[in-house]
Every structure is written in structure tokens, then in C-alpha cells.
Amino acid sequence: MKIATYNVNGIRARLPILLQWLKESQPDIVCLQELKAPQESFPIEEINAAGYNAIWHGQKSWNGVAILSKGYEITEVQRALPGDPEDIQSRYIEAIIDQVVICCLYLPNGNPYPGPKFDYKLSWIKRLKKRTDEFITMDLPAIIIGDFNIIPTEIDVYKPERWENDALYRIEVRKAYQALLEKGWLDSIRSLFPDEIIYTFWDYLYKAYDRNAGIRLDHILLSPYLASGLKSGGVDKHVRGWEKSSDHAPVWIELEKDK
């Protein structure tokens, strides 16, 4: 099973890019972030024509998440992260596919630091941890996947000294990410490439992609139940170089369910 995540940065504007990548990569399950489209504007006909069924939670102009599946039924569990009924931002959608819990997320950016947006980010992470702790306790096959807006360590960012007070790299969020790993979640890409410089995002400015001045924000975390099934993975960096592409690149893993 090939599972991928891709922050498309506007699904209507990037639809040709998305369809081209789907045809090339042929993932079985895809989690998308930053749809930037209301619910009724999701291009379901084009997605279906590409061979995928989908569930999605849109939002006008901002946010938005979706789960695509080829050949597997999607059973939606919920489309909001529990813990704050007043949170109306479409950043989370959870489903069961082939007996695996898929948690697709677009975690808040949190900038500027300090401020209410950073506080919202920390509270959102706390809610995420509470929900995902339940999967660990029940020993469920589960995947937390998407744009975390967290740079885990200094190897994950070009010139880390410039990022100390950025909400993506603040010590508070890095510790929160580490706490997930200590709970038992496996950072699949980093486990496959422990010492390599791997980025998933390159800013449009300053020729960041050409200079490989990037950051690693997009992660696929596996619960202990699934960790031994991780076979391969990578970042489709070349997609970022396509004309009119998102500023993120797709990230993928190959997973074999051993149990």
C-alpha cells in the first residue's frame, strides 16, 4: 500500500499538477491539505475520473483537507479534531481505510510568535496528542499524516539559526513533536533516512528551490502497530519544480501490513 501526503496550496489552481502527479506516482491513499476551496468547489468529478474516491472538508479561501483512495472504501470517522467545539477551521479529517485509521491534518502555522495564533497552535497540538494517545492505548493501526507546520530538528531546516523564533521551529512545538515520537509514533521518513537532508517545502521567494533552501514540514507518523510494515518512502521533490506547482512536494511511504 502506497500512502502519500501533499499540501496542494489551492486545489483548483493546482488541479492539473495534482492529476499529473497522481498519474505518475499512483498512490493508493492520498491526504491533501490547503484546499483553499469551499465544500461545493472540490473537483470530485476530476478526482473520480483519475480513479479515486474522496472525502473532504473544505473552507472558503483557507485551510481544507481531503483523503483520496484508489480501490479502498473510505469510512469517515469525523471531520474536526475533538476538544474545541468552537474551532471552525477545517484542519482535520479522520477516516478508516482497509482497517487503518487515517488522520489527515493541516496543523496551524502559529506565526507570528508570540501571539494568539501561536497559542492556538499549541492548544491544537494538545488536542491532537489527546486524540492520538487513544490510538496508542488501544494499539490500533493508525497514521497521523499531513502538513504539521513543525520543523522537528535542525537537520530539517536550511540555516536553522534563522528560525529560532519562528512558530514552525520554536522549542515548544519541537518538544511537542518529540513527545509524539516518545509515545510510540514513528517518523517514517526520518527513520528511513536518519542522517540525510530532506526537505518538503521550498518558499517561492529567493530561488529557494533552486538553492535547496528548504524545510521539512510534511510528515507521516505510524503507530507501533504499523511501524514494522514500513518498507520504503521518499519525497517527490521534482514535483515542486513543475511550472505553477505548490510550494510543497508530495511525501510518500510504502507500507506492508504485517498483522
UniProtKB/TrEMBL annotation:
<dbReference type="GO" id="GO:0008311">
    <property type="term" value="F:double-stranded DNA 3'-5' DNA exonuclease activity"/>
</dbReference>
<keyword id="KW-0479">Metal-binding</keyword>
<dbReference type="InterPro" id="IPR020848">
    <property type="entry name" value="AP_endonuclease_F1_CS"/>
</dbReference>
<keyword id="KW-0460">Magnesium</keyword>
<comment type="similarity">
    <text>Belongs to the DNA repair enzymes AP/ExoA family.</text>
</comment>
<dbReference type="Pfam" id="PF03372">
    <property type="entry name" value="Exo_endo_phos"/>
</dbReference>
<dbReference type="InterPro" id="IPR005135">
    <property type="entry name" value="Endo/exonuclease/phosphatase"/>
</dbReference>
<dbReference type="InterPro" id="IPR004808">
    <property type="entry name" value="AP_endonuc_1"/>
</dbReference>
<dbReference type="InterPro" id="IPR036691">
    <property type="entry name" value="Endo/exonu/phosph_ase_sf"/>
</dbReference>
<keyword id="KW-0378">Hydrolase</keyword>
<dbReference type="InterPro" id="IPR020847">
    <property type="entry name" value="AP_endonuclease_F1_BS"/>
</dbReference>
<feature type="domain" description="Endonuclease/exonuclease/phosphatase">
    <location>
        <begin position="4"/>
        <end position="248"/>
    </location>
</feature>
<dbReference type="InterPro" id="IPR037493">
    <property type="entry name" value="ExoIII-like"/>
</dbReference>
<protein>
    <submittedName>
        <fullName>Exodeoxyribonuclease III</fullName>
        <ecNumber>3.1.11.2</ecNumber>
    </submittedName>
</protein>
